[in-house]
Amino acid sequence: MSRASAADAVVLADDLTLVYAGDETPAISGVSFRIGPGETLGVIGEAGAGKSTLARAVAAQSAHGDRDLPRVAGGRISVLGVELRSATRRARDRLAIRVGYLPQDGGSSLQPQLTVGENIAEPIFQRDKHFDRLEAGAAVARLVDAVRLPLSVMEEFPHELSRGQRQRIALARALVLEPELLVADDPTMGVDVLVRGPILQVVAELQREFGFSALIVGHDLRELRPIVDRIAVLHAGLIVGYGRVDEVLAHPLHRYVRTLAGLHI
Collapsing DSSP states into helix, strand and coil, what is residue 108? Predict the structure, then answer.
């Protein structure tokens, strides 16, 4: 990788190995990839391939109930110029403000006692409890509209919405601080098949509007294919295919990629 391409990378992983505390068996083994400004990388693979581990590492944060953050045991990963292997907790916390994270089934992580509007606005007031409430309300309304939901949902509670609607609200929450990078871990998991495409299309439309880069984990290449610039195919913690979708499928070098190619070419 050239010095220039490394310098302008939003995310740069080089021979990255990730492990969890108390388990020295790598969850991710020696992977390399980059995400440039405004680009979308799709990550696809079977269950247990390491997709969520990679997403958590890039986002430098965990969802409620997740395992501890994976530790960089080898190689390097830089996110928005921050070297995660040597980053302090304070540096990671500052980075988290610049990265929007949508965990698996993010809609279920909404606070049930808060209205939809309060859920979306919560990261604003976590950062600055004195933030102007009218300005926050305007930002929330803009995002509710952007995720194609009526403004009336702002006064409802999460349990009053469908699963697909809750997932859109979780997406709005992940974007409320106008992050430079969005990490979405399987944003359509568990959502009705008729809603999956529209959710990913909303992500793509918001990316064009706000200009953030994105890493999107998925389990169905047919859903990811229209919205990603490149894909990384994970198998047992290894990247076994990487590049533009058509190129990866046209030259499958691993049996799992050959299986994908047989399904999607």
Answer: helix
Tokens representing 32 are 């390399």
Q: Are 36 and 213 in contact (CB under 8 A)?
A: yes
**Cβ atoms < 10 Å from Cβ of 69:** 18
Neighbouring residues of 97: CB distance < 8 A, sequence distance ≥ 6: 127, 177, 179
For residue 67, pLDDT beyond 60 = no
Provide the whole-model pTM. Answer: 0.91
| 3-104+181-264 under CATH 3.40.50.300, yes or no | yes
Q: What pLDDT is attached to residue 264?
A: 58
Q: How many CA atoms lie within 13 A of 148 on its CB side?
A: 13
User: Of the given ranges (65-74, 215-224, 253-262), which has the lowest mean pLDDT?
Assistant: 65-74
What is the model's pLDDT at position 199? 84
Query: For residue range 182-217, what is the model confidence (pLDDT) as tens digits?
Result: 999 998 887 777 777 888 888 999 998 889 999 999
DSSP reduced 3-state for 258: helix
CA-CA distance, 25 to 193, in Å (whole number)?
35
User: Which uninterrupted H or E stretch holds 182?
Assistant: strand 181-185
The amino acid at 222: R
> How far apart are alpha carbons 27 and 52 in whole angstroms?
10
d(C-alpha 28, C-alpha 36), whole Å: 21
